[in-house]
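Subject: for your reference before the review

Hello V.,

The reviewers asked for a structural picture of the protein, and I figured it would be easier to keep everything in one thread rather than splitting it across files. Below is the amino acid sequence we used in the manuscript, unchanged from the supplementary table.
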Amino acid sequence: MALSTRTGILLLLSVGIMLLTITMLASGAEACPQYCLDVAYTTCTASGDKHLKAYCNCCFLTEAMPNAGNCTLHLSDGTQQSCS
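And here is what came back from the structure prediction:
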């Protein structure tokens, strides 16, 4: 009896994990890389020359502002990274 209870619990957990995985894959969920550039500020073509909040990388910027269009991360050393 105890064996069948454990087997049932393991089966339910396995099915739950599989359903969660399928749901995440179907939704296109994707994690941003966990690194942060030394960004001074951000600009986007839609906002003109306005200096926007500094985002760690293009992925975080895109998540925060999905309709921003062509944006550029302006790094503290004077270089730029395009997020198109």
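For the response letter, the relevant points are probably these. The CA atoms of residues 5 and 11 lie 10 Å apart. The beta strands are 39-44, 71-75, 80-83.

Happy to draft the paragraph if you're swamped.

O.
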